[in-house]
Amino acid sequence: MADRLTHEIGNAMVPLSTHQQLLSDKWKDSEFRASLDSALADGVKRVTRLVNQMRFLARDGILSPDAFPLAPLIEEAFQEARKYQPVKAAQLKYETGGTPLVLTGDRTALKHALAEVMLNALQANPADPKIGVRLRSEAGTNGREGLQIEVQDNGSGFTAEAAEHASAPFFTTRNVALASA
Hints:
Elements: H1 2-26, H2 30-58, E1 66-69, H3 70-84, E2 91-95, E3 102-105, H4 107-124, E4 130-139, E5 145-153, H5 160-165
Parallel strand pairs: 2-4
Antiparallel strand pairs: 1-3, 4-5
């Protein structure tokens, strides 16, 4: 995981390094300054997100399991994801099956996981992202009630090869290289 994290931080640094190398020659070019501003904002956002992910993973575990309603948590996770992919036209629709659901568990962990999944959903179709969340109660194998959370987006989907690797940490099909400056 550390290797993938350093790779992702390196990806975030490429546009910053490139702009730094061009800074003395292109500073007077307004297009370059706009590109630099964007690269700095994006780079800081990406690295901050990665640091927050590692802080979350390094925590000691569940502090105390709490009972919490799920619907507000879904909205909070959506808003958290939008901080990293701010799209004005982004839409969230969720179905609870008609009854409000209350869970007991690690609220922070579930919010973090849902925000990451929703960020991926927003990035799947940045021009017009639509996210659907469906919640269904179901009987668990241990006699306890379970919950299925299904998140769907309107992106192009995975190839068969990408689907094989989709659950690997930091896996992406997106091009994270530098755009021309």
